Amino acid sequence: MNRILLFLLIFPTLVSMAQTPAKKRPMASKDMYRLQTVSDPQVSPDGKWVTYGLSTVDTTKDKRNSDLWMVSWDGKESVQLTNSPDGESRARFSPDGKYISFVSARQGATKGQIWLMDRRGGEAKKLTDLKTDLEDYIWSPDGKKIAMTLRDPDYADSAKTKVRKPYVLDRYHFKADIKGYLEKGSVHLYVYDIATKKLDTLTTGLYDETSPVWSPDGLQLAFVSNRSDDPDRNENTDIYVMDAHKGGTMKQLTTWAGIDNSPVWSPDGKQIAYLRSTASSNFIMYDQSILAVISRDGGEPTLLSKALDRPVRNPKWAKDGQTIAVLVQDDRQTYVGRYIFPEGKFAGLTGGNRVFSNLESAPEGNWVAMMSDPQTPGELYAIENGNPRRLTRVHDDFLTPLELATVEGFTSKSKDGTQVSNVLYRPANTPVGKKLPTIFYIHGGPVSQDEFSFDLTRQLLAAGGYAVVAVNYRGSNGRGLDYSKAIYADWGNKEVLDILGAADYVVEKGIADPDRLGIGGWSYGGILTNYTIATDTRFKAAASGAGSSLQLTMYGIDQYTNQYENELGAPWKNTDKWLKLSYPFLKADRIKTPTLFMAGEKDFNVPSAGSEQMFQALRSLGIPTQLIIYPGQYHGITVPSYQKDRVDRYLQWFDKYLKPKTL
Question: What is the pTM of this model?
Answer without folding.
Answer: 0.94
